[in-house]
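#struct-help
A.M.: can someone run this one for me? Single chain, 62 residues.
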Amino acid sequence: MGLVVGFLGLLAWASARSRRRGIGASMMGPFEEMYHPAAAQSHVELRLQTERKKPLPSPEDL
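D.P.: on it. Structure tokens below:
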């Protein structure tokens, strides 16, 4: 029983630490995908949208 409580405490600590440092997606992503797939899919979509580059303006626009 103590092992289970210790493991859950470790996960809670890791989750809080990853949120503070901004690395939550890489560290807690697999757990989020297991327990809340819709949220994981939306995080992937948001990450893809931020990585997309804006198209360069045409010379006629300048």
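A.M.: thanks! The CA atoms of residues 45 and 51 lie 10 Å apart.
D.P.: also worth noting: The helical segments are 2-21, 24-35, 37-51.
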